[in-house]
Fold:
Amino acid sequence: METIQTDVAIIGAGGAGLRAAIAVGETDPKLRIALISKVYPMRSHTCAAEGGAAGVIKPDDSLENHFNDTVGGGDWLCDQDAVDYLVQEAPRELIQLEHWGCPWSREPNGSVAVRPFGGMIKQRTWFAADKSGFHILHTLFQTSLKFPSIQRFDEYYVTDLIVDDGRCQGLTAIEMRSGQMRQFQARAVIIAGGGAGRMFPFTTNGAIKTGDGMALAYRAGVALKDMEFVQYHPTGLPNTGTLLTEACRGEGGILLNKNGRRFLQDYGMGPETPVGKPQLKTMELGPRDRVSQAFWHEQKKGNMLPTQWGDCMLLDMRHLGEKAINERLPLVRDVTTSYLGVDPVTDPVPVRPVVHYMMGGIDTNIRAATPLAGLFAAGECACVSINGANRLGSNSLTEILVFGRRAGLSAAEYVRSGARPGNDAALAAKATAAQARIRARFEKTGGKESVAALRKEMMTTMERNAGIYRSGDGLSEACVKLGELRHRYAEVELTDKTNVYNTDLLQALELGSMLDCAEAVAASALARKESRGAHQRLDFVERDDKSFLRHSLAYYHPTDPPRVEYRDVVITKSQPGVRDYSGDHQ
Amino acid sequence: MSERLVEVEVLRYNPETDSEPHFQRYSVSCEEEWVVLDALNHVKETIDPTLSYRWSCHMAVCGSCGMMINGEPKLACKAFLRNYEGVIRVEPLAHFPIERDLVTVIDDFVSKLARVKPYLIPKEDKPLSAGEYRQTPAQLKKYKQYTLCINCMLCYSACPEYGLIPKYIGPAALSLAHRYNADSRDGGREERAQEVAATEGVWDCSFVGACSEVCPEHVDPASAIQQEKIANMVDWYKEHLMPGGAK
Ligand SMILES: Cc1cc2nc3c(=O)[nH]c(=O)nc-3n(C[C@H](O)[C@H](O)[C@H](O)COP(=O)(O)OP(=O)(O)OC[C@H]3O[C@@H](n4cnc5c(N)ncnc54)[C@H](O)[C@@H]3O)c2cc1C
Ligand code: SF4
Ligand code: FES
Structure:
């Protein structure tokens, strides 16, 4: 097997991976960086982010505000030292991006403009029209081209981490063009593999968000933290799941039930505010978990609009007018008119909650380090945790920058502190074992299962049992079912047994990742007998700080269900309190 | 939900097993609102798992799914079935080598993009602590449209020059060079000129304008190239005709 020697191997070239690569490159140009991604960097799903990135910049705002919004928004499950670091570093990172050319939207005087976002008490979301993630990703990608030390391996699919002598020392990857396996021998590895929304059938996540990065760490013995917290975004296009950014409401869009009532006022997010004059942190600018949960209740009451794609609420933006919609929400207008045939300038748009973001992920600390020496992680695949039980919109783009950089700095520091050289023979043996495992999957005959069928069963299970509201019975059922699917997965036989760009094989491997992640979600959700943020149990409706002001940690087992343990949340200054979205704080 | 039986004819080519490309036809039961990508996904899931193509976002922003649809370069995720009658023919993007089926090799673009230095080369250095560079909405507007390129390669597929002269840097890379040249914060035009103002740069463009017609993001590469031609001409005159040169 061909072996590539590098100092820092980075898995994933989305926002977090690129930011990490640049940080390593800037820190020490002599360090060799291998930036490995299963898609070309600009295809990474960061490109789909619309609304913007939060960072305190205006004089009426403060770091303390951003901290409080984030911790309260996360229902006090965030680690407060990590949130402190995030809000402190955020403005610097966003300015850095500006210095690299990001076309942020501007005020008339030339300073950057900010917009309101859900759960935030001040306007602090930097945006580039409604293609913020796209511009962040392309700015980072294009900037990365300046660094000769960043060597890219585009369209390489990482299959395994190589762990020896108690530390992560590399990985194996399939070069998709040839189908050949490569060994990367690295002194440090950073995982920046993104989210896992594709476990669910209805999601804003692109096809590539299959939780590979999480599964890589998980199988190597690192816990997946807080996996039960899955964010539903309230406003997805009902047929395709395409996101309509929260900025629709930030700009003044309102949510109606089928009777034309702004129903959020009935769920602790009122009183009603004047139409077209959005007030921060209340009504339509409440946090995502609460808004999606309100939808669920209204649906139960029969107050939602039945459509061919299921029950919907209406997102009404007509009062914003054509000019504002074109200037601030051009992508939204394009998406709704072309994919749904509804023009927001003239008609309210039917929308329904859609799986959007994983708050949980690879257990990392404030230095973006995992408990496994030599292994770092950042971005959506990691859980620091700054998102707690519910991420606030526009904190994630900031997170991929702040902790992407942090992971790069930590990895560089680790490498330069002089890790012992690895045992080449032992590493090669592990790579060969990984290759043998993939080969067995590739060559398997007589299998009775197909990738498409198992994937469908997994998605149905997740949607039915691990959605906005959950119950012990449903989750137990999911755990059993997922265990069974994982078992049956061994029986998958590929149809495509050729080497070049074999997506049948890749989809099988991706399904393996998703099944592992799904099991961690279901097991952690079953074990958390309380309701907090995005995790709502019909059988345990209250938040229980006595028992569960703790992170869940799911540990992998090759045949059995995961083992779930707990670790206390880091609290520095904000004691758990009531989440108030009544507008009274104004 | 009204369904419709759609015939899709897809170019297949597997370098390991096929001596040359051939077409394969699939009958797909489609929903009215579907795009061509949905039809391909349906084929992959229910008929033929060996079919290979790229896609991710399904919202015309990741740039993965460019292909020829009835002979025109299109994003499969934005090519609505309702706009097509009869058999829909799907082929890999023209002017690129085929890696497999609808997957093309885009190494050429990727290396050309790096050559035009598509990153900010600041006019004046400013520490982060001094905050953002000021840029008015009007200054932003001068280059904003050229930032919208999703690198989908439709314009290279449509460009007759690129088909003839593979060395031509091409519409998207030139637009991105122009995007930085036109940015009020940038001072790197001279550095980029080496590539942009060379023969294989803007001067290879014969202004057919096909790139702008097919661009799904309305980047209008043709106008970027035209503006670069004019700017470079002015530079040339400044250097050669003005007493003492421009600098
Ligand atoms: C539609 C949408 C809109 C959003 N809007 C906002 C917003 O307005 N504000 C906000 O803050 N957040 C938003 N988010 C969330 C945010 O965009 C993401 O959380 C963030 O971009 C994730 O970045 P990342 O770098 O972690 O992962 P990604 O950008 O997803 O990148 C993952 C990378 O990992 C690589 N990879 C994965 N598996 C493998 C493997 N096996 N081998 C090799 N490479 C691999 C991929 O190729 C890719 O390069 C939005 C999310 C979505 C889906
Ligand atoms: S200029 Fe337009 S057509 Fe060409 S690559 Fe960019 S987005 Fe695609
Ligand atoms: S799938 Fe992303 S552009 Fe078509």
Q: What stands out?
A: The two ends of chain A are 63 Å apart (CA to CA).
